[in-house]
Structures are given as C-alpha cells and as structure tokens.
Amino acid sequence: MPRSIAFSAVLATAINVSTALFASAATITYTNQAAFAAATSGISFTTVDFEGIAADNSFVFEPTPPGVTLMGANFTIDHTTGNTGVLFVIGDGFYYSGNSVLSSQQSTPVANNIVIAFPGLQTALSLNLGTLEGAESWSWALSNGDTGVLSAPAFDTLSFFGLTSTSGFNTLRLTGPANPAVGDAMNIDNVSFGAGGVATVPEPASMVLVGSALALAGGRRRRALRGQD
After folding, report:
1. Cα(148)–Cα(175) distance, rounded to whole angstroms?
2. What SS3 class is residue 177?
3. Among candidates 73, 51, 52, 75, which has minimal Cα distance to 65?
4. What's residue 42's pLDDT?
5. DSSP labels for 48-104?
6. Interacting residues of 139 by C-beta distance below 8 A, sequence separation 6+
7. 36 torsion bin: left (phi>0), alpha (psi -120 to 50), beta (else)
8. What is the pLDDT of residues 165-195, one digit of tens each?
9. Quick one: which of 103, 106, 120, 170 has the most CB atoms within 10 Å?
10. pTM, whole model, 2 decimals?
11. 190: three-class secondary structure by DSSP
C-alpha cells in the first residue's frame, strides 16, 4: 500500500474512533466538578442539600416507601430486591461536619440502594457521595438504560460525581456493593438536577484513545515523509 494511502487509512480510523466515541456517549460521567460545571453552563439546576430536616448531631428516620420528597424529587429504597435497609436524613455533625446527608443503610446481605425519581426528564445531575466504611464501588443506572460504576470514598469524606446525557432520564438508581458490612451505608448530599443542552466533550481521560490514534497517524506520516526524502 502506498505510504500516503496508509497514512490516510490510519487518519480515517482515528477520525472514526473519535466520532464513535462521541456519538455513542449518550451519557458522560464526571469526577471533576469544574469540568462538569463547564459542560452544563447553560443549565439551571435544582439542588437538594437535606438541610433543615434533622437537627445537628441527630437524624430522622424516613419510612420506605414512600421515602422523602424534596424539591420535587423523591428519594427512597427499592425493597423488591430483598433489601432490608432503612433510610435516614442525617443532620450536620453526626457524620460530616457542616453536611446533612441522606443515608441508606443496615441492609444485609443484599446491597443497599437509593432510588431517586426526578420531576420530569433531566439531562444532567450531580451529587456528593460517601460511605461509613472503606472506599468502595457503587453502580448507577438511569431510566434511559445507561449504566456505570462510580467510586465512593472512605469515611469521613465526600466525593463529587456528575453526569450528563443526550437522552433524558427521570430516575437514578444507586446500588452499593453486595454483602455490605452491618455498619456500612450509602450517603449522598447536594443532589442537583436540571434539563437543557449539554456539552458532549468528556473529561481528558476519555480523550486518551483518540489522542493515541492521532499520534500514531502523525508518526506514520512523518516516517513516510522521511522515506520520500
């Protein structure tokens, strides 16, 4: 194959990989809050921070169903899986200084879960999350069929997770690890949701595949030019 044609083929492959990455990525996840903010700059968010429900250093039990509805969003536990857990709103200072959280806990051996039903279709959401034990992986699932895995930090910190989708969704299900420790919990705070246009550019880590393909194409092109000298 002539070198110029070979370069064109590699470049076309890189372009096809890039196009496929963005076209297939109906949902993009973020762990960087600034990157998420940039991707959703045109969206007006509603935020649930769970403040004012439980007194500082105290908690309020929320029966499930129905769970608790705040700012139009319902937060509950799905017990159809055999989950035996309970839902609490935890006041400032009980787990985290300056933060009230929603806590799903005490289910064993079936995984803890939290199900959020939003008021209408959304295209973006973010939240802070944490555990009462060591760092662990949770799964997430949207009503539009998209699923994934996220990382929850060890107690007593909260980390950021956000996502955007070109396909609207009205529920989010978070599921913790199987066989949770008796004292483990899924804690969430600052749940923000909104609808509108979202940027389709993922965080830099998602660009590695495209960048590698383009670098390969560039390297072959340089070698081809040297061979013609």
Report:
1. 11
2. coil
3. 75
4. 94
5. E--TTSS-TT-EEEE-TTT-EEETTEEEE---TTS---EEEEE-TTTSBTTB-EEEE
6. 147, 148, 149, 150, 174, 175
7. alpha
8. 999 999 999 999 988 777 789 999 999 999 9
9. 103
10. 0.78
11. strand
